[in-house]
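Re: [ENG-882] Designed sequences occasionally contain unexpected residues at chain ends

Forwarding the minimal case from QA. Structure tokens:
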């Protein structure tokens, strides 16, 4: 993927803008309680960024991170509250982009559902044929 063809995205208010210099390497749905509460939805679709491919192009000064004691850093815009990406604290090159933040089709689709044991009863999981894992996918 060339710089001209890179994928771009941002937060709801537009202060934070980013681009990926390489295509995402995959995507998953997460149904953990933390993702539900953080997004206000039944699950969060995330695309895995290729290591080293994320570039923050605007708004780095308004990015904030929440560091749960037992999970990935959750980066968000301090102006509008939009979830932007998550980052493995032990392997900072491992990043999950929030798929709703892409400007265009990222070219990947979620291939599994994880933490389905936490999925809420008010939104049944679709019969989409994706593999399901009660906890974190291997």
């Amino acid at each position: 993927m060339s710089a001209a063809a890179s994928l771009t995205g941002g937060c709801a208010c537009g202060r934070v803008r980013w681009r990926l210099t390489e295509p995402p390497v995959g995507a998953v749905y997460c149904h953990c309680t933390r993702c539900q509460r953080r997004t206000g939805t039944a699950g969060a679709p995330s695309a895995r960024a290729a290591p080293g491919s994320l570039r923050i192009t605007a708004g780095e000064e308004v990015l904030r991170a929440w560091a749960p004691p037992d999970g990935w850093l959750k980066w968000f815009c301090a102006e509008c509250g939009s979830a932007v990406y998550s980052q493995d604290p032990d392997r900072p090159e491992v990043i999950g982009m929030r798929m709703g933040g892409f400007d265009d089709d990222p070219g990947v689709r979620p291939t599994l559902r994880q933490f389905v044991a936490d999925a809420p009863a008010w939104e049944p999981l679709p019969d989409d044929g994706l593999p399901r894992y009660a906890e974190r996918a291997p």
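QA comment: On inspection the terminal residues look reasonable. The longest helix spans residues 33-39. Proposing we downgrade this to a documentation issue.
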